[in-house]
Amino acid sequence: MHTVLVITSLPDPHVEMVKEHLSADVEMVIFDPKALGISGSFTISESGELLSLGGQSPVSVWYRKPKYLSESEIEKLRVPKDYLPAIASLHEEGFSLIQEAYPDSLWVSKPAAIKRASNKLLQFLTAKKIGFAIPETIFSTDPKAIDELRSKVGDIVMKPLGRPFANVNGVPSWFFATVIPASQTMNYEGLGLTPMIFQQLIHKAYDLRVTVIGNKVFGCKIVSEKIDWRVAQSEPETLYTPLDLDKETTEKCLLMNQQLGLNFGAYDFAYSNEGELVFLEINPNGQWGFVENKTGLPLSKAMAEVLIGSS
């Protein structure tokens, strides 16, 4: 029996998709920090072995989407309010020890590599070195620098760093890319608190999502009227089509994954009206199930093969 250790929080549809492609002699073991914190048990040795695996090393570790208990969830466990920040911190720190376990197993991908590759500046530096075209971009809190960029390139896109989430008047809201036309007057109030991405607007024919799993590369053409197709990801007018990638793009994506220390990557490109493929970003631990569901591309099969070492 072979073991694949999956670090995630359930439910996770991607796990079920991959399970369908695993043989009977492969066991998928879930490490869910939130569930373990509420009703499980956890022991890891100084050599980085989980007691629950009985001394067996997994053939691979799949770092998916683990969640940790929030302060409000911990409060429901009758922890005094004064201790909530400390307990929440200790909970995450303790269960994060798993991130350095099993150094000889294949990781998809190492959490440290995922965190490093999430740095947008590193992404642009790496993409440019590899030879991808990139839009003119600044990361800034300075109105003067932003106005200078606007004078130079005209319309721009403003993007948040990270994935900010807020409850606005009780409505869950994500902040996505926003177009700032050259004619629009900008209000810079509050900008000093958090640098933002300000980027030349690429007038695109379509978006391209490239998913790299191990040494396999899959292209998906996305046609959407939105500047950020994720806003309309599930809407019927957003069209997804498999796209065969040219050899150069395939090799560059594989090389970028290698340089960032990743075994997975979800790349976003814009294909401009002028016929140029422009790198926008890589999500080093992005979602991909929707691409398979929309296109039939065998992403879950490719992931299963990587996890059991047959890719």
Description:
Helix 1 links the parallel strand 1 and strand 2 (26-31). The protein has three domains: 2-108, no CATH class; 136-200, Dna Ligase, domain 1 (2-Layer Sandwich); 203-303, D-amino Acid Aminotransferase, Chain A, domain 1. The longest helix is centred in the C-terminal third of the chain and has 14 residues, at 247-260. The strands form four sheets. The chain has a five-stranded antiparallel beta sheet with strand order 13-12-11-14-15, sandwiched between helices. It has 311 residues and is α+β, with helices and mostly antiparallel strands. It contains ten helices and 15 strands.
The major beta sheet can be summarized as: 5 strands, antiparallel
Number of helices: 10
Shape: globular
User: Any idea how many domains?
Assistant: 3
Instruction: Give the termini distance in whole angstroms.
Output: 19 Å
The number of distinct β-strands equals: 15
Percent strand: 25-35%
Order of the strands making up the biggest sheet: 13-12-11-14-15
Low-confidence stretches: none
The computed structural class is: alpha+beta
- The average pLDDT score comes to 94
The level of helicity is 25-40%
Radius of gyration: 21 Å
Order of helices and strands: EHEHEHHEHHEHEEEEEEEEHEEHH
